[in-house]
Design a protein that fits this description.
Radius of gyration: 17 Å
Shape: globular
Distance between the termini: 39 Å
Number of strands: 15
Order of helices and strands: HEEEEEEEHEEEEEEEE
Strand content: over 45%
Helix content: 10-25%
Strand order of the largest sheet: 1-9-10-11-12-13-14-15-3-4-5-6-7
Length: 213
């Protein structure tokens, strides 16, 4: 199964030129004034472990396991993925500027696999977003953050104030959608990560919940 994962990632890279990727545009929104300068994704900000059941669907291949995310400092997290049988698959430390690979199963020790995980988790664990534009629609406030060729659209539920979605763009092309279900600002009960130019989907569902507020 791990070999299928590696082969699927290679195939996805070969197919990227065939898959369409349209420019991203907000619909049914109104621009608004906003006094605050930044917004945050606090879902991985607790010092307690975040433990999820992890499912990866890559083309027709399915891989499942247990994912643990631990905050090591204000800038760095440790991420470990094990199989359903408890065998370690990969273990790394990541921040917005650094990446340290502690362990990787030989079958997964391929550049395409490491880069895929590094890039996705770097975007997932990004915490602060400077606001460049603000919008609203019936049920959400939306903040656009820009960083060179990257763009982030953060959707916050109007009623709960919780972060519900992040749409990551590059050169104004939609790349990854992160969709969250949560009851607390610091803990996502579930996460769906969907690539737009790869046939890759990652689903995380909580196993243990942090007790902190």
């Amino acid at each position: 199964m791990l070999r299928f994962l590696r082969l699927s990632l290679v195939y996805s890279l070969m197919s990227i030129g065939v898959l369409s990727c349209k420019s991203y545009q907000l619909t049914d929104v109104q621009p608004i004034s906003e006094s605050k300068k930044t917004v945050e994704n606090l879902y991985f900000s607790s010092a307690e472990d975040y433990v999820y059941k992890c499912q990866m669907d890559i083309y027709k291949n399915h891989v499942s396991g247990i994912l643990i995310i631990k905050k090591l400092s204000e800038t760095t997290h440790r991420v470990a993925l094990t199989s359903d049988f408890g065998n370690k698959l990969i273990d790394f430390e990541i921040s917005q500027d650094d990446f340290k690979l502690n362990y990787v199963l030989p079958d997964l020790d391929k550049k395409v696999v490491i880069n895929f995980l590094k890039n996705d988790f770097r975007e997932l664990l990004k915490k602060q977003y400077p606001i460049h534009e603000s919008f609203e629609k019936k049920d959400a406030r939306i903040y656009l953050s820009k960083n060179n060729h990257k763009g982030y659209y953060l959707f916050f539920d109007k009623e709960s104030g919780l972060l519900k979605k992040i749409i990551y763009t590059r050169n104004n092309k939609e790349k990854i959608d992160f969709t969250f279900e949560a009851k607390k600002h610091i803990f996502a009960d579930s996460l769906n990560l969907q690539h737009k130019d790869f046939r890759i989907n990652i689903k995380l569902v909580q196993i243990t919940e942090t007790e902190s507020d």
